[in-house]
Amino acid sequence: MNLLKTAVKARIPLIAVHTDDPRFAPKLIESITGREPTVIRWQTKPGVKSSISSFMGSQQLGVIQPTEDIKWPETNAWLEESGATLVVVNPETVHPLMFDVGALQVPAEITREFILSITDEPTQPLEAALSGMSITNMRRIAALATASHNEFTPKAIRAVRKAMFPVVRGLEEVDPDQVFYDPPEFLTRWLKIDGKLFKPETHPMLTPRGFLFKGAPGTGKTSGAKYLAQKLKVPLYKLDLGMILGKFVGESDERLISALRQADSFEPCVLLLDEVEKLFEVNSTDNVMPRLLGHMLWWLQEHQSKVLTIMTTNDVGKIPPELFRAGRVDFVEEFQGLDLDKLTTFVFTLAKKLSHLASVPEPRLLDLIQRFQATHTHAGTASSPVNQAVITEEVLGLIKREVIKTGAKQ
C-alpha cells in the first residue's frame, strides 16, 4: 500500500513527505498519485487563506515546499472546507495536523527513464542496483561509478553505493550475482505466481512475506536468496544477527530495531537472515535473546514494507517455531541438493559460463560427473542429491588446474 496515494485518494488535507529530490517532488507525486499537482511557490507574504486558495484555485491537489512560517490550522480548515489536499515537502517541523507519509519513493518508471538517459544497456539489473535511491543520489552515483570504475554497471553502482551510504551495524548489501544456480522447482513455481505480487501495489494480505529455507550446508539455501533477488530485480541485504549484539543494556535492541527500519526504507528488497539458529546458540544472562526475538517476531508479523525475508537454517530444531509460523513467513521449504539427473547439465553449464577463465576438456568434465554419480548412487535405493557447493568447487578446481597447466589468463 502506497500511503501517499491512499492519503491523496482519501483527501487528507495536509500531507507531509520527505525527499532528497525537492525540485522533482511534483513529478514524483504525479507519478505516484496519477494526478498532476498545482505547484505553490511563495512570491509575496499574503494571508494564508488568500495565498493557498489563489494559488490552487479550483485544483484539488497542491504541493508546496514552505520557505516561511505558515498558519497550518487556518490552512487545514480551508483545505477541509474545499475538499482539497496540500502535500508539504520537507517541512522544518511536522505539524500535528499533518499526516506524515515518510520518504517519497522514486517509482520504477522514473528510475528506468533515468537509466535510459545514460545507457542503452538492459535496464532491469541497473534498476535493482539503484532501487530505493533518490533521483539526486542516482545522478551522484552514476557520475561516481563512471569516474571510479569507468563503467555504469550494477557492480560499479553497488560499490559506490556501499561507500556513499554505509548501512547500520549488522546489515550489509550482498551482491546477488552468481555464475550459475539450478533453482529447486518450488522457487520457480513461486516466482510464477506469488512472486508477481511482490513489487506491484498489492493488498498486504496478498503481498509475499518470505520463506524459511532449511537443509544441510551447501544445498543452495543462500544461493536461493540470491536467485530470488535477481529474478525479482531488487537489492539483497544480509542481516547478521551476531553483529548486532552489544555490550550495554538496550544496545542490541536498538541495533536490531535500526537495522529493520533501514531494511524497510530499502523496499523493495530481499532481506537474508542466514543461519538464523546461531542467534539462539549465544549464551546470555540479561534476557537479551528473548527481547531480540520479540522485536523480530513483531516486525515479521506487522511490517507493511515490501521486504521479502529469507531465513535459512541448518537445523530447524534449534529455532523457536513461532519464528516461522504462518503470517511471519509464507512457506517453509527444504533444500536437499542437486538431483543426479540434473548433474550433467549443471556441470557443463557452469564450465561454459567460466570458460573465459579456462576451457576444461570434455573428458575431464565427464570423469567428474561419473565420479559423483558413482558416489551418490546406492544399490537398491534412490540416489542421494549432490551438494551444489561441492560440485561448484570441483569444477573450479578443474579450471584452476587448466589455468596453471596452460597459462591461461586469469
Short description:
With 410 residues, this protein is an alpha/beta fold. It contains 15 helices and eleven strands. It has a six-stranded mixed beta sheet with strand order 6-8-9-10-7-11, sandwiched between helices. The protein has a five-stranded parallel beta sheet with strand order 2-3-4-1-5, with helices on both faces.
Structural class: alpha/beta
CATH superfamily of the largest domain: P-loop containing nucleotide triphosphate hydrolases
Shape: elongated
Distance between the termini: 48 Å
Could you list the spans in which at least 5 consecutive residues all have pLDDT below 50? 43-50
| SS element count, helices | 15
CATH architecture of the largest domain: 3-Layer(aba) Sandwich
Which topology of the largest domain does CATH recognise?
Rossmann fold
Whole-number tally of structural domains: 4
Main beta-sheet strand count, sense and barrel state? 6 strands, mixed
> What is the CA-based Rg, rounded?
26 Å
List the helices and strands and how they pair.
Elements: H1 3-9, E1 14-18, H2 25-33, E2 38-40, H3 48-56, E3 61-64, H4 72-82, E4 85-89, E5 99-103, H5 108-116, H6 123-130, H7 135-149, H8 154-164, E6 171-174, H9 185-192, E7 210-214, H10 221-232, E8 236-239, H11 251-265, E9 269-273, H12 288-302, E10 307-313, E11 331-334, H13 343-353, H14 362-375, H15 388-406
Parallel strand pairs: 1-4, 1-5, 2-3, 3-4, 7-10, 7-11, 8-9, 9-10
Antiparallel strand pairs: 6-8
